[in-house]
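As promised in the previous annual report, we have extended the structural survey to additional targets. Below is the entry for Release factor glutamine methyltransferase.
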Amino acid sequence: MSTLVAPGTTLAALQRMALLEPVDQRILVCHALGITRTALITQSDRMLSEDEAARVSALLERRLAGEPVAYIVGKREFYGLDFTVGPGVLIPRPETELLVELALERLPPRGRVLDMGTGSGAIAVAIAHARPDAQVTALDVSPDALAIAQRNAELNGVSVRFLHSDWFAAIAGATFDLVVSNPPYIAAGDRHLSEGDLRFEPAGALTDHADGLTALRAIVAGAPACLAPGGWLLMEHGYDQSAAVQALLSSRCYDDVQSWHDLAGIARVTGGRAGTASLG
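The corresponding structure token record, generated without further manual editing, is:
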């Protein structure tokens, strides 16, 4: 049995043990004991039983080995909503909320939205939750991801149409007012793939195993066939890819091509509007 945390340790003493980042440690302790953050404070004199100490130790050791907190507890908050997550999908990140905000600003009443490569469904579900009038479609090539996304739609009480599709294959002939995507955009060999939480997340959702632009090229090329005139295409991308993505959009004659910065000041989302004429 693990002895990282000994039986008889009080919650107060446990909080003073700087084993992990304070936020990570608090989340894992609360999850292991089934208590709230408030209880962690108000029950500071509570001593851990042998079973509780073992449960806490097991979770802390998983995190010390590098496993993401979201995978350990099985959930992550995004855009004020709770999402089930697991090794089959990317962990929703705060910077992606920018994509949701930009989408909501451009979504017309009763608008039709397509989320490409939905993963956990975070983007599609967040949009559907904020705009119940919208018709939201989300697709992914991974059946496992779609199962998690469907669960998240049900968890948050929203209606989203989920499709198994390799990019545009399953939506031929459909028209949308808005297309959004957070596709794989990390280039092969990027050191970040072997660091932190990314080591545990599905590689196919992170990288195209090439220059990082393969999926972005496919989306830019295919979106005109399903975008209504004046409809927006919005894509999340890497910290150094905004110029390349703008060039892709401009080469296909999108209008109003521009990039938007996240709270860290990084150009995180780039997009453009479909013109009234067919985009070439």
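The radius of gyration is 21 Å. The longest helix spans residues 50-64. These points will be discussed at the next consortium meeting with the crystallography subgroup.
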